[in-house]
């Protein structure tokens, strides 16, 4: 199943000495997307690379597991963190909102 491209973001993955991961991540990585004091599940797609190493900055598409919770709250240039539990492994900013509204509408219809 295709991962929705709810938002596009630029993400910097911290190096181990900065508290980040020591191993790479790949498409369908599912860390927490952290903003406004809450963690949210989001699946990642990296369209330009096969793997993302610590210290890399990449373009990513994120698909939220609960898109309706984010519609109207996210905006371009908004900063966020990528976390594994309470550990920050990356920092990013949203570059554009793409399919979030459509994903939110589908989720509302499914839950109605």
Written overview of the protein:
- The chain has about 110 residues and is mainly beta.
- About 10% of the residues lie in helices and about 45% in strands.
- The protein is built from 1 helix and 8 strands, in the order E-E-E-E-E-E-E-E-H.
- The protein has one helix spanning about 100-110, and strands spanning about 5-15, 25, 30-35, 40-45, 50, 55-65, 80-85, 85-95.
- The strands form 2 sheets. The chain has a 6-stranded antiparallel barrel with strand order 1-6-4-3-7-8.
- Strand 7 and strand 8 form a beta hairpin.
- It starts with 6 loop residues before the first strand and ends with a helix.
- The model has no long low-confidence stretch (mean pLDDT about 95).
List the helices and strands and how they pair.
Blueprint: E1 7-13, E2 25-26, E3 32-35, E4 38-45, E5 51-52, E6 57-64, E7 79-84, E8 87-97, H1 100-111
Antiparallel strand pairs: 1-6, 1-8, 2-5, 3-4, 3-7, 4-6, 7-8
Q: What's the tally of helices? A: 1
> What is the terminal-to-terminal distance?
22 Å
Order of helices and strands: EEEEEEEEH
Mean pLDDT: 95
Helical coverage, percent range: 10-25%
Uncertain ranges:
none
Strand order of the largest sheet: 1-6-4-3-7-8
Gross geometry: globular
What percentage of the residues does DSSP assign to strands (E)? 35-45%
Describe the biggest sheet?
6 strands, antiparallel, barrel
> Structural class, from helix and strand content?
mainly beta
Q: Give me the count of strands.
A: 8
Using the CA coordinates, give the radius of gyration. 14 Å
């Amino acid at each position: 199943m295709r991962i929705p491209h709810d938002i596009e973001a630029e993400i910097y993955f911290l190096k181990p000495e900065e508290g980040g991961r020591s191993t790479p991540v790949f498409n369908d990585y599912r860390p927490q997307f952290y903003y406004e004091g809450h963690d949210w599940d989001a699946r990642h797609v990296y369209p330009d690379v096969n793997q993302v190493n610590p210290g890399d900055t990449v373009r990513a598409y994120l698909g939220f597991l609960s898109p309706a919770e984010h519609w109207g709250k996210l905006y371009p240039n908004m900063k966020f963190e990528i976390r594994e539990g309470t550990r920050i492994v990356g920092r990013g900013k949203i570059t554009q909102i793409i399919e979030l509204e459509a994903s939110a509408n589908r989720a509302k219809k499914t839950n109605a």
